Amino acid sequence: MPTSTPPHVVPLQGGSNFRDLGGYRTGDGRVVRRGAVFRSAHLGNLTNDDRAALGRLGVRTVVDLRGVSEAAETPHLIEGLACRVVGAHIEPGVGEKIRGAVADGSATPFVMMGFLTDHYRDYPRRCAPGFRTLFATLSDSTHRPLVFHCTAGKDRTGFASALLLTLLGVPWDAVMEDYLRTNELWTGHIGRYPELDIDTRAAIVEARTAYLEAAFEVVRADFGGPEEFAERALGLDSPARERIRADLLEG
Questions:
Q1: Rounded to whole angstroms, how far apart are CA atoms 193 and 179?
Q2: What CA–CA distance (Å, rounded) separates 182 from 179?
Q3: Predicted confidence (pLDDT) per residue in 52-65, tens digit
Q4: Distances (CA, A) of 6 to 19, 60, 181, 236
Q5: Which residues contact 182 (CB under 8 A, 6 or more apart)?
Q6: What confidence tens digit (pLDDT) does each residue in 189-236 have?
Q7: Residue 47 Cα distances to 13, 61, 97, 216, angstroms
Q8: Per residue in 10-37, is it b (16+ CB within 10 Å) or e — as a string?
Q9: How many CB atoms lie within 10 A of CB 238?
Q10: Which pLDDT does position 171 carry in this prediction?
Q11: Bridge partners of residue 31, in order along the sequence
């Protein structure tokens, strides 16, 4: 029995990496409900047709994982949509390190991989408040259908998606498959860091197995596992987690 079906990708003219987290099969044979929770890159370049597409999906809530200044630089273009925006701000501290290394010439694939790996380790250690806001919002059915995003829909969004799918019981191979789909679907990397060689640039813009695994190693080592992390860091006790599973699983 396959562990997943390909996620439904919503093609957007002014956005990318927008997809339904539904369709994945859990270890006990249930399926994540489609049309309830979506992940995406930023929504700052949407066209009229894109807004119509989000309207057809019935999106009620947009949860923005970008930092405060980052979000202000590229505001949402969602005028006319009957949805609210929730700020779950996680500051992109790794960006400053990358820009510094590019400026002083110290950027190499090894250095960039170190920056990104440390950044992912920070998600469970220092960024829990933003993820707590996201999960508190999506756990309330009145806020769904819901889309959450950062800038690329790769790192912050990637960790949050992996955590949600894991809590729903989706096997790790399928969780990683979903995470790595960003490498096919995110178009915002085109033209970024043209001064860098291809390997150094790739270490920055790619979703990589080692990055996500580093975050979950901290989840296990510091908290005991995803369920314990959800309870201690995100405020989701066992009944709350069961409600999410009841809402978001079919079969």
A1: 22
A2: 6
A3: 999 999 999 999 99
A4: 10, 24, 10, 29
A5: 17, 152, 153, 154, 158, 207
A6: 877 888 899 999 999 999 999 999 999 999 999 999 999 999 999 999
A7: 7, 18, 33, 36
A8: bebeebbbbbbbbbbbbeeebbbbbebb
A9: 10
A10: 97
A11: 25, 250
Residue 40 one-letter amino acid: S
What lies within 8 Å, CB to CB, of 249 at 6+ separation is 26, 30, 31, 32, 33, 168, 169
Q: Note the pLDDT tens digit of each residue in 128-180.
A: 999 999 999 999 999 999 999 999 999 999 999 999 999 999 999 999 999 99
- Residue 89 has, within 13 A of its CA and on its CB side, a CA count of 9
- 118 touches 163 (CB < 8 A): no
- Tokens at residue 206, please? 């790619």
- Residues 6 or more apart whose CB falls under 8 angstroms from that of 31 comprise 22, 23, 24, 25, 249, 250, 251
31 φ, ψ to 5°? Answer: -130, 135
- The residue ranges of DSSP E strands in the chain, in sequence order, are 19-20, 31-32, 37-40, 61-64, 84-87, 146-149, 249-250
**Contacts of range 70-73, beta carbons closer than 8 Å, 24 or more positions apart:** 70/151
- Please indicate, yes or no, whether the overall pTM of this predicted structure exceeds 0.85: yes
Angle ∠(228,177,202) on CA atoms, nearest 5: 105
